[in-house]
Amino acid sequence: MTQKLVIAVCTAQRPKMLQACLDSLDNLIAPANTQMTIVVVENDPVPHFTGAAAEDVKKRLSLPVFFHHEKRKGIPFARNTALDAALEHAPDWVALIDDDERAEPDWIEKLLAACLEHKAEVANGPVRRIYEKPAPHWWKSQLLKPRPTGSIITEAPTNNVLLSGRIIARNGLGLRFDERLTFGSEDIDFFRRTHAAGAKMIWVDDAFVEEDIPASRVTTGRLLSRMHMAATSGAFNIVLREGRLKAALHFIPKSLRRMFFGLLATIVGFVLKPFARKRGEKLFYYGLIRLMKGSGNLRGLLGRAHNYYDVIDGH
């Protein structure tokens, strides 16, 4: 029996990156007895891929592509529109990938095979990051952590994931992204709730996608802003799930520790820089990152949004 698989991509003001992503999806090895479809959601007041632009893409690709528009600004709005768009095709499976990524030809084949072999409803794979410009020496880049395919996971991002249609279907779990989380962590929250609902989630170690990291994303300001955003959204997520009091009891002491030791490291690093530049800079920026995390946690407790995603990196 043929099963239906929909690949959903959310995008905003990055037509070149999106086209590279779609080209990679068009080169996927189709799993046996699987019908694949692509849905694209533009999260922008004025969509780019309409009319002739959309038709050009559809003619160029062999897979069917459907374009949708979500004018409300915010990642969870776009992701929910993508899930609803996917459901229009009655999918057995839905895959999510970001518009700044390119899938390996066997990406979807390996995710689906792992789900079937391990009787799982969610499969998450690794991301290779391709930097346009090297990150600063003091930045600890996110490294791939190999682990056996089939390892149980309890959360996942949306940059490389396959999920059963049952998880989002109205007559299934009916899960959606929390639209209050407009400034980050909406994907981690979604899959934590998916796990809590009883869905088996696994890691697939060889289902790769590649992510392009523009030079603008590894500037000092953007890197520190990302740390602040992640800490803000992480704390706000706990406020929503467990209440402000419980979140405050956890994050206030943690934030104060982070800010105290961050300030101390920043001062020591600053004093050390003239004598040992590289070591001093590493300690200085380690302290700034701690300060960003501590202040971000406090910001999240207050429910104050962060504007990191207001800036679009890439084209």
TrEMBL record:
Domain Glycosyltransferase 2-like: 7-147
Residues that span the membrane, as ranges: 259-276
Keyword terms: Glycosyltransferase, Membrane, Transferase, Transmembrane, Transmembrane helix
Domain of life assignment: Bacteria
Keyword Transferase belongs to the record: yes
PANTHER family named in the record: GALACTOFURANOSYLTRANSFERASE GLFT2 (PTHR43179:SF12), RHAMNOSYLTRANSFERASE WBBL (PTHR43179)
Family to which this protein belongs: Belongs to the glycosyltransferase 2 family.
UniProt name for this protein: Glycosyltransferase 2-like domain-containing protein
